[in-house]
Design brief:
Mean pLDDT: 91
Order of helices and strands: EHHEEEHEHEEHHEEEHEHEH
Distance between the termini: 30 Å
Strand order of the largest sheet: 1-2-3-4-5-12-6-11-10-9-8-7
Radius of gyration: 19 Å
Strand content: 25-35%
Largest sheet: 12 strands, mixed
Number of helices: 9
Number of strands: 12
Length: 331
């Protein structure tokens, strides 16, 4: 058998999406978004998809790139995925080696990778010099069979629920809201340098983000909380981010926005919804359980330091739902 690793071509989009759905069905991924990311990623990210072929058949892929929207320098991501039906041929190791070589040449000092807690992937990462850092819990909601809590008959004084599409003439207020919520996400590196231009590309214009289902809680005219929704057109949706501005936390607005988004998604024909949270994010995990979400999968973030210095990690923030970051950031 002949195994090769090469750069992504536009004709690979469907095969790459098929691999991602087979490996991580809890992440929304479409051929359109794969092709779009390959073309529209910010230049500073140096984004590239690598693909593995076995006897000419695409069996794996890896997203690679620098973390350009963080003040912590030298951070990079390599996420190799190999179709479960074609493991054991060395494709994962070949993809990882090619990704590491590429990222090291770009000046990366630390590489992170998400791997499923499937009994073999974390051990694969450790054999290749990575250490386990933190876990993310993915949950699934059967929208077709699970009753949702009802929406309140009355909203709190001054509160309105709108869609992201309502801000089409000027989405900048949503960027301000998203950037503040994202900055407080739990993680191994801060996401504190996202420019408006990059946000427009990576979030607002992303083909999997449904602006009509994405819900915004507005207080006296100011966007205060939101729940972004990604959908694949196949009946599946996912929370791409849920959060609120610091000044409005503790008022249940993010929970309200997410509940409205779920009702709208079900009305639009979605039959299952996914969400994900850092394992330390107890407040958002509790909200999701109250909505009827059930445990579905766990992923480990694994880290490999290419230099001796290891930056510290940050504690969890309250009430931020950081699922499906694969959508929001091309890596």
């Amino acid at each position: 058998m002949s195994l090769t690793v090469r750069a992504f071509r536009s004709s690979d989009a469907k095969a790459v999406a098929d691999v991602r759905r087979a490996v991580a069905p809890f992440l929304i991924c479409t051929p359109q978004s794969v092709a779009w990311e390959a073309v529209n990623a910010p230049a500073a990210q140096h984004f590239q998809i690598l693909v593995a072929e076995l006897d000419g058949r695409l069996i794996g892929a890896a997203k690679t790139g620098l973390v350009h929207d963080s003040t912590l320098p030298g951070q990079a991501v390599a996420n190799p995925m190999v179709h479960p039906a074609h493991r054991g041929h060395g494709a994962g190791r070949a993809l990882l080696a090619a990704a590491e070589e590429r990222l090291a040449a770009l000046g990366a000092t630390r590489i992170s990778a998400w791997v499923g807690d499937d009994g073999r992937s974390p051990e694969f990462a450790e054999r290749n010099g990575y250490r386990r850092s933190r876990t993310s819990r993915f949950l699934r909601l059967d929208l077709a069979r699970t009753p949702l809590p009802p929406l309140p008959d009355r909203l709190p004084p001054g509160v309105e629920l709108r869609t992201a599409a309502d801000f089409g003439a000027d989405p900048h207020p949503l960027y301000v809201l998203d950037a503040e919520a994202t900055c407080d996400e739990p993680g191994d590196m801060p996401s504190d340098a996202m420019s408006y231009e990059d946000w427009l590309t990576s979030t607002w214009e992303h083909p999997d983000i449904d602006l009509g289902l994405t819900t915004v809680a507005v207080v006296d005219g100011e966007p205060a909380a939101f729940s972004a929704v990604a959908a694949d057109g196949l009946g599946r949706c996912s929370s791409a981010m849920t959060g609120s501005k610091r000044a409005f936390r503790g008022r249940g607005l993010a929970k309200l926005a997410k509940l409205r988004a779920l009702h709208e998604a079900r009305a639009a024909g979605c039959t299952e919804a996914f969400t994900g949270n850092d394992a330390t994010n107890a407040p958002m995990l509790a909200i999701n359980r109250a909505f009827g979400y059930q445990p579905y999968a766990t992923e480990w973030r694994c880290l490999r330091d290419l230099k001796d210095e290891l930056p510290g990690t940050r504690p969890s923030a309250n009430g931020q739902d950081e699922s499906s970051r694969d959508i929001r950031k091309p890596v």
